[in-house]
Amino acid sequence: MKEIYITALSAGDQLASVPFLIQDVSRRTTKDGRPFLLLTLSDKTGTSGGVFWDVPPAVDEWVSAGRVAAVTGRVSDYKDALQITATMMLPESNPDMGDYLPSSDRPKMEMISELYDFIASLAEPWRGLVDHILLNDDFLPSFATMPAAKGMHHAYIGGLLEHTLSMANLADTLAKQYPLVNRDLLLAGTLMHDMGKVHEYTIAGEFGFSEDGRLLGHIVRAILMVETAVSTTKALNDEQSRELLHLIASHHGKQEWGSPVEPKTIEAVLLHQIDLLDSRMQGFIDHVKKDTGDGDWTKKSYMFGHEIKRPSGM
Amino acid sequence: MKEIYITALSAGDQLASVPFLIQDVSRRTTKDGRPFLLLTLSDKTGTSGGVFWDVPPAVDEWVSAGRVAAVTGRVSDYKDALQITATMMLPESNPDMGDYLPSSDRPKMEMISELYDFIASLAEPWRGLVDHILLNDDFLPSFATMPAAKGMHHAYIGGLLEHTLSMANLADTLAKQYPLVNRDLLLAGTLMHDMGKVHEYTIAGEFGFSEDGRLLGHIVRAILMVETAVSTTKALNDEQSRELLHLIASHHGKQEWGSPVEPKTIEAVLLHQIDLLDSRMQGFIDHVKKDTGDGDWTKKSYMFGHEIKRPSGM
Amino acid sequence: MKEIYITALSAGDQLASVPFLIQDVSRRTTKDGRPFLLLTLSDKTGTSGGVFWDVPPAVDEWVSAGRVAAVTGRVSDYKDALQITATMMLPESNPDMGDYLPSSDRPKMEMISELYDFIASLAEPWRGLVDHILLNDDFLPSFATMPAAKGMHHAYIGGLLEHTLSMANLADTLAKQYPLVNRDLLLAGTLMHDMGKVHEYTIAGEFGFSEDGRLLGHIVRAILMVETAVSTTKALNDEQSRELLHLIASHHGKQEWGSPVEPKTIEAVLLHQIDLLDSRMQGFIDHVKKDTGDGDWTKKSYMFGHEIKRPSGM
Amino acid sequence: MKEIYITALSAGDQLASVPFLIQDVSRRTTKDGRPFLLLTLSDKTGTSGGVFWDVPPAVDEWVSAGRVAAVTGRVSDYKDALQITATMMLPESNPDMGDYLPSSDRPKMEMISELYDFIASLAEPWRGLVDHILLNDDFLPSFATMPAAKGMHHAYIGGLLEHTLSMANLADTLAKQYPLVNRDLLLAGTLMHDMGKVHEYTIAGEFGFSEDGRLLGHIVRAILMVETAVSTTKALNDEQSRELLHLIASHHGKQEWGSPVEPKTIEAVLLHQIDLLDSRMQGFIDHVKKDTGDGDWTKKSYMFGHEIKRPSGM
Amino acid sequence: MKEIYITALSAGDQLASVPFLIQDVSRRTTKDGRPFLLLTLSDKTGTSGGVFWDVPPAVDEWVSAGRVAAVTGRVSDYKDALQITATMMLPESNPDMGDYLPSSDRPKMEMISELYDFIASLAEPWRGLVDHILLNDDFLPSFATMPAAKGMHHAYIGGLLEHTLSMANLADTLAKQYPLVNRDLLLAGTLMHDMGKVHEYTIAGEFGFSEDGRLLGHIVRAILMVETAVSTTKALNDEQSRELLHLIASHHGKQEWGSPVEPKTIEAVLLHQIDLLDSRMQGFIDHVKKDTGDGDWTKKSYMFGHEIKRPSGM
Amino acid sequence: MKEIYITALSAGDQLASVPFLIQDVSRRTTKDGRPFLLLTLSDKTGTSGGVFWDVPPAVDEWVSAGRVAAVTGRVSDYKDALQITATMMLPESNPDMGDYLPSSDRPKMEMISELYDFIASLAEPWRGLVDHILLNDDFLPSFATMPAAKGMHHAYIGGLLEHTLSMANLADTLAKQYPLVNRDLLLAGTLMHDMGKVHEYTIAGEFGFSEDGRLLGHIVRAILMVETAVSTTKALNDEQSRELLHLIASHHGKQEWGSPVEPKTIEAVLLHQIDLLDSRMQGFIDHVKKDTGDGDWTKKSYMFGHEIKRPSGM
């Protein structure tokens, strides 16, 4: 359990087994041949440089980017910034990444409860299938932890579930505005459209891409997950399965944006629009939040391609 | 007042001053030198060929595409289709174009009433300005008649107002989901974003483009309308005016889609997304409705670039 | 068994139960209200117009595009072209579509034998998996019949297998030129990369797209086929499965060409290049073959975007 | 009035109230807690680092990027470059930005005189309108000061007027080569096409974008300026106004380059071509001038996308 | 020498050896097996259908599209249009294509004289080289006859020279406005930039592409022409030759528009701009001229991508 | 002859006339006004910083990037890296650039021998022409030394010939798979398609572009080389020459990739595909080789636009 955060450190502090995330590590040698480590240590409040002189082989062996280490040592000033000089580092097993990486503002349990409610509201056969896949003990904890993207929007712990629920709310509302839409199919597709991201990203250290994410991507992974669940549960017939897979496969809207097929049913067209709308709105808000200036205009946003204007309430 | 519609005609009927829209007219001469007219006549229920032999100069003079003519003559069969052989045609003044062109399914008065309600719900200074522009007697009748597009979506009498109200409903709902959004600014921009189309299209005959639409387009025209209203009413200060003009100028979302600036405020981003969402959904439904086949798949849609699948309820 | 072909018909011939493919059918009514059918009848040698006057309800019921019908009637001349006037039509069950649609120049059995040899040459675990999927009795007949595309290249009966084998030969040769390539993985991916097309196209009547082809496409379908086979046979471990799925998912080379991921392994880069090379070369040859002119230059090719020059040997 | 320029400074010089532009300022604290400023000071001849130790609150308060400050202090060498150590800084009111930013080679008065001549050569109603807008005392000084762009071409004080006059000369000449062109309409449009840039840029510190420039851009601003002037002066009828607004709205040539409509009249086509031609030619010359190498080839030009060759006379 | 033109024919006229261009010919057979020709005959004033019954083998042999034939026969009416029924056709040798295809409004001799003047105004070494290539007896007649394009602009007999001279005038004028430009190099490049089109097009029948035009294109052909002339005359040194070849190679401005290199010298940038400007202006005028409607707006222009507005003087 | 390489240096070594390539040189002055040189010295094994204090004018005069210098001096450590402090530098004449720049793994003589074999295998007239151009004593040494590209693939000494031979092997093999292809024409085109690069690049210092490469590029240069050889040897007739030039001109495949014409013959289509295939495969391998990480995934590749996966054998 983490109690001391980087933002509270000052020069002269002594650290006794304080855990930090190792964001980056370089192995160097002094002129007289002694090994040392240059470290970047972080938690959700900030980042500090670090150095470990005369690193013992037992430590050298396991230290790598993405691990969480309990650090013993001292805090000093170096080139106008904090530096942690470590004298011992031990690996933490099973850390709560929410302490080390930026997190959603919504409490995790509140979001999980909302997910349960949405699934309960589905008609069969959709309810059974979605329950089988998402409310699985091997899956739900990761689903509730993942970011929704590496950097564009919802790029924080819990962002994937937050984005999924935000879209589910939109889907529920819009299905009423456009009554030709099959609400249960749309909602099932919405809840599962990005679930492949659980296998696409890694959240050790900085958010990165997994082997699965690089070679297959979250759309193909989600398709495989649905197929496996359907062949296990026999919940859907061929046509229902195809309609659901179409929602997932087409939700990026265009082939050039990574969908192997484009939306061809009314639910698929709407799901893509909801995804676009929620990503753009949350991407706007995230960019403004992260922008450290205090003027009316942010720096250039990668998503929008230009500077954006801070809303008056922020 | 039109009482007889094309869909009800059959070979042998006699017509006495029945009004039709002249969609197209060609002037021809018989081998022995007598002038005649080849006509395409239509109303909101269908289209018929027509011919007027030995056309008198007084008729020849005024007949042109887009006029409504009261036709006297006879209905016959020609090449498996109806043909109207006219013996007299007189120009109708001030016809209700709703009889001749496809119309929205929503009653006009119901839509106007809903527009009044939305405007009444606005805070000042937005309410005064929108009222001044839209509820003007010179403007409202056209605003309630125009289509929203030439062919892609809402391409029928009343389509512009129907699209505007559908978007206003979305704006109202979504402003709650994203509380940073200034709901009154968003709604004012939504109600006025496409109002320049009243000057962009012509609805005589087939929907076409006016001189104003060709040289300036509806975005520039709406900008000029706001500017004129602001300088008359002094309703807005410079900053409010700029924010509102930005909504209108940027609502197409990208320069390549005709917006001179891209959305840079949260309301502008949301307005563009709402416009996209409603256009795509209604464009989907319109394409399925117009598609005459009875299979599950329509012909290729110009908007989507491929065939789309008929929703099960249609 | 079909014995009489369109190319051999002449005006005056009597037809007794001669089978033809119904490419197109329109239901019409004479001026005095009697129903008749306008038909386009075809086989692999050509196309003829057809008409069936006073069509009995029992015939009217089943006649549709894509069916093969045994036609009794008479051949005549109409507007400088042959026309078949039918007096009876009966449905053929289980016709050999190779009689009615253009076919590969290579004998089917020779191609199947070559496929067996390629699979036999694979090391495990690839051999077992490819055998399980492709040499399956429910699959192989269709795999040996399908075209490789609707119109661009190899668009004829057997074209899919012909294209697959041509690519397998290239893969075998090029794996030697680039020794870093895993030959067995490459060849397994080559043999299966387009197998999803068996479910993508329909070959009744003209080549068309199936429901599966429209909603999922052949890449997603092939991914599902591999997944099902892997979970049945346990032939591959996770990493092998991912490498193989990557080959299939990325073989179009770019997202804008329909691949959800781009090639990232050396085998995937080579597979895409082989596919491109063979499609372009066969597409060139097919376009020249189909071009009916006798000059040096063909009409504009859709694949190449311009006219192409006939090779001297054709 | 500025008399001492950066290019003439050397280590050891004493400065007494010498004015410089503050291009950038960072507020820092020494290890023992005393505030100091790191400055970038500049004038039209160059740039120097600066530092102000123990900055008094009265100075700290007003110092910001874009202000001109009269600096008292001393010049020294720091890391092979000049550094100004300030002991006092006072704000300059109403500085002539031409002393601090790069300027056009053409004398301002000569350019204004040429502008008068062009306007005098116009036929009515164009002369009255252009005179009303451009020769206005509130507008002309800014119009004669602004750059024509932030970095691509004519990016210096007076560049906007220089570019406008260069294009007016081309318009005058080319109207003779293409006699169908309405010379007075073309020239009026040319003189006003970029005038919205007076409100688009800010020239405090570095050239930047104003609130108006970000939310509306110079095309929309110029459209509003014409509309206001027309409604005040009644100089133009509706058709003339539309033709002129079309020139301004379409002068970027394509929607993707920021024009809400594309050129549709012969004058609009020519105006866009003249703008393109003059921008490219001056952008070529500006890039070569700014390029500090002495070889035949410059560094890569952003406008052209590659290196360009120095003309032999430069 | 052609004296009778299509525009003057009427039903009943007898034709005795009147020459027409054969634009198109189809070989057909009557139901009783007699061969006949369906013809499209034309001259610069218009087009007429034609038929030649019982065509003798000696005529059948040489008749082909692009030949000029002296036709004996009779004019009649067929389906409201003229038809020429030929009884004899003899090939014309060496016809003046200006009689059969649309021509420039400028007299050929006047244009050639202007070309001589431009060349005379060049400094050496440019004058000698341009004279050697363009004023060559084998080349000049074709250079003065060719169109400048197949359809976009200057698509008529003499159009290539007319476009070249129009651009030379612009080059001469603009070299004064931008004094860094080497006027003689620019003018030499302008006069020769499109000369490869003499080998690119064929003007028999309709304008088409030659073997050279298809396989190499006019840019490569012009490069080869310069290279041959330089190696014959030794007029230019390596650097001069490279500068001139660069002008020709880069004049389309972008690789995607067919230039193997992009403009990198000031003369090359200006030449491309002049080409663009003159093509657009003349393309605008040509489109309006060819447009047969009488309203203010033309049909959609392929060059501009939309309808354009007729200038008031046309 | 170079015997000592950078990879073998260590602090304290004395250097006596050891040759290095001067990759970069900056001229600086100490605070007390003495000139010195900051150098980047390299050979094919690595790079070292260098400094030359109190540089004598005779040395200062000739030192420039791209020259090879015999350096006398001493090796030391500076900021954790090697630095060579020179006391004398003398220019090397005629160095073997293979000692200083990365080179192909294939021995030069083996590649030249393979080139001879390919040319010997050609039928006339191709053999004579290719021999005349490539086996020329003025050309072959450069052809065997050049890289095939600046950075994308085969970017090392001998890379051009290595790429040419790899493609020739592919051409030879594939001509058998597609028998309509004229093998001798294809092979001649393959051997010469990139030969213009001998004039496009410079290999002094880093690989760069020559004046010829910038203004004309290797495609135009190769076209000129063929033209000159054909006019000297009369080896080809017009049609053969055109077919060969077409191969060279079109081998980039698309205009936007720098080909003035697109491939229109079967040999041109195949040549482009072979070029693409070999460039991508070698580009993949080169990127993995240069990537210094040791994980499974490389850094982002410029050619592929994303990270690529290291083949298991590397």
Give a topology summary.
Six copies of one chain form a homohexamer.
Chain A: E1 14-29, E2 35-43, E3 46-53, H1 57-62, E4 68-78, E5 81-91, H2 108-120, H3 126-134, H4 140-143, H5 159-177, H6 183-192, H7 197-200, E6 201-202, E7 208-209, H8 211-215, H9 217-233, H10 238-250, H11 266-290, E8 297-300, E9 307-309
Parallel strand pairs in A: 3-5
Antiparallel strand pairs in A: 1-2, 1-4, 2-3, 4-5, 6-7, 8-9
Task: Describe the model.
6 copies of one chain form a homohexamer. The first copy, chain A, is built from 11 helices and 9 strands. Chain A starts with 13 loop residues before the first strand and ends in a 5-residue tail after the last strand. The longest helix of chain A has 25 residues, at 266-290. In chain A, helix 5 (159-177) crosses helix 11 (266-290). With 314 residues, chain A is an alpha+beta fold. Chain A is elongated. Chains in contact: A-B, A-C, A-D, A-F, B-C, B-D, B-E, C-E, C-F, D-E, D-F, E-F. Chain B binds chain E through residues 31, 211, 214-215, and chain E through 77, 80, 296-297, 307, 309.
